[in-house]
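Trying the structure run again after the queue cleared.
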Amino acid sequence: MLSLPHMVLPADIQVILDDVRSLLGDLYLVGGSLREVLQNSEISNDINLLVSTPLSECRRRLSDKGYAIAIPGHKHNSLVVPLKGQEKPLSLDIASFRHRPSKPPSLEEDLLHRDFTINAMAWPWPRGPLVDPFHGLDDLNRLRVHLVDGVNTLQADPLRALRFFRFAIRLAANPDPEDCQLCEEVLPEGISPERLRGELDRILSLPLRDEVPREWVLRLFRSNLGRHILPELGVLDRVRWTCEKEESVFDHTLRVTLALTPPSGREEASLLDLRWAALLYEIGRAMEDPSFRGDLSLASSLLEDTLRLGGVILERLKFSKRRQKRILSMIQYADSNFQPTDRAIRRMIGLALPVEGMLRLLRARNHAAPNSTPEEKRKLDEEYEKALRRCLSLRSSPRLMQPRDLLLSGGEILDMVRLPAGVWTGNLQKELISWVLEDPARNNRDSLERKVREWMTREENF
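Done. Tokens:
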């Protein structure tokens, strides 16, 4: 049975949408937010809306009515309006119709420009009926990922090939075989490193608990697409893990990556950066293949090769300097004979190193080690859990707090707010530090993100 959006959305959101429709005219619920409503899921972030009114006029009308400043959206044809007092959804993402130069703007034209059929539906607010020219609802019910217009969809934006894999992983789906083959062969030429990194970050942020999503991760990195994005991983598929074991270094690396357990909100580590550290942990082994040297000369050790080659990859994908340091630090110290004494932990915390991430990476490596018995793994788990508890206890000791101590980096704040850095960045970080010092338990990603969203709604801050 079709779920009607006005029966699923919270009452306060319905009131906002009714008000926006009265201001802007015809309003359509589209994209990911409509897909989530049709699946009876909570809307994860933005409410995606489509309007025919020019965006400049939309902005004027919304501002006149007292809405928070309409921040320009990340796409040229959209704007974002933060919602006050909301945890989820966080904002309205209002877009204008996309269309071909030879065609006038229309709802049908816009849906043709979307990536997958499950995202190419629209619901005229508030009563419908559903506009579904590409049978997206049927595909959604069957968990089928299908390109709207085949190769034309990919030519319009090659990044959609990577998004195709993300949706297959996220939905544990059964993608259209022909579309899958098309996506596997796409070359990521012309896609900016920032967009590639952002999409890979989204993929590595997914739970990946079940077998089907894991198989799609393997398929992605083994595809022509994946090997052009990270050719170094493809080389690892030709290098054996040990002389006695037929498993390739690539397979072992993926097993370690998928064995990672999510850190708690209080830890100085994120599952995303942990997975990047695990992916790059054995990357120096690529130098063992005589056909691959990259742009590097042979280094003096496997760890040195790994840190140098890992740094090249992170720089190529335009990771922030802070993230590069955090990921490479986890790799470097997880390779050492680290003994988690209080003195050693204090020293590493003082150096602003992600100790918890290093411990979780060590544990995942040991879990993936061949011939480990269940009893040995249980004992290792106990040892690492004890070390993690000591680390959290020592980290919570009173000391002068710096912006780097916040579990939300400046780069991550910029990604949330979608504004260039400026004086406001330092002001926001000072406010976050003051807020955390009132209650150290607030220094976790979820709480900090809520505080940033609250800060965004204050007009005087922009």
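Residues 132 and 399 are 57 Å apart (CA to CA). Worth checking whether this holds up in the mutant runs.
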